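Subject: complex prediction, re-run

Hi both,

The earlier run crashed halfway through, so I resubmitted it with identical inputs.
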Amino acid sequence: MSEERKVSEEILGAFVDGQLAAAEWAEVAALVEADAGLREEVCRLRALKERMRFAYALPARARAPRRAAHPGWAGLAAASVLFAVAGWFGHAEWSRPPLLDSASAYALRGDWHSLRGDWGALEGGRVLVHVSTAGRDSLSGALDEVEDLLREAGRDRRSLEVEIVANGPGLDLFRADDKVFAQRLASLRRDYPALSLVACRQTMERRRARGEPVELAPDVALAPSALHEVVERLRAGWVYVRV
Amino acid sequence: MNLGIENLFGRGPALRREIERERGMLCRMAYAWCHDAALADDLAQMAVEKALRAAGQLRDPDKLKAWMLQILSNCLKDHLRDKRDLVDFESVEETLATGEPTPEEARAGAELVRSVRAAVAALPVGQRQVVTLVDLEECTYAEAGDILEIPVGTVMSRLCRARRALRDALEPVAREALGTRLRSVK
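This time it finished cleanly. Structure:
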């Protein structure tokens, strides 16, 4: 297999780490798209990265000061959702005819930086922001980015639709009892009608089963699951950004 | 460039606070490098102290994190030099295997955490640093190279070797630990 490798392990790693320049990235993306073996490897690399993050999300023991609470089941569920997304990229949908046009190809890289840098290359702006991690900083950071994108699009008179889909610990973004987020979302929705909010029903049900039901802020729609939503949107050519 | 002036007058206290704020991040990274919580704490403390003393040398405030990680890496290097071979895997294994499990660790996922940490601990220190900088702190290859004072090509080859070793060590474990959950999520 190594003899006929089209992409070296190092380059594939750089692809997964978002370290390739746009042209090289597109080249590798095309090869990955066409080759089941490479897709499998991309999937495994992503899964490995998720496992690394999961393994060190806990505070170190002993004298180390305790930091954030243990992610517990919620964290594990989030990790497995991400695994499943990776699995999805790696298997089910990948085996169909190529999904990736130049815009949705960004799904693979999925970070703000590359999205903004290459914004000019995108046709018909539709961006799906997938929020699955906890932490107020990252959640409010995501809202800042969304607001920037929408504002810039408005200023340049570009059409732009943005949907935020939240699951796992990320669902906290949509809690009605979180005054700060609820107000922020309400004002974003008022200023930008092209913004929609979608919560994962499975996460809602899981929390209810744990005795921690969540009341959603107004205007938040429900999807059968975050994964389902992500799959649907990507099929329709949305750009995917994971927070 | 009026960075010098800013340092003396406006930026000093704010920068000191920002340095203090990175302590948790440093501690986590130091732990991922040495897998010894007490040592990680000491290294992070040392790095914070050095950074506070050297704050005037930080030219670009946007590079605070990378700069502090570089200091941390140098602290580890000094420590390793003092102790000669001190990446003492026996004690790492011991902490990993016999440290009393906290209630959190008793839960599902603990096995996965333990196996990942054991596999990371078994990597040569250079590989361990690269893979944790890239995966945990999402450093770019260039940043990782600056922090560890190695060329980008070396970052890439170490990363590649580290991941190959981690995958060999971990893939069977992950299938066991997460296989059923994965299916239930789909």
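The radius of gyration of chain B is 19 Å.

- K.
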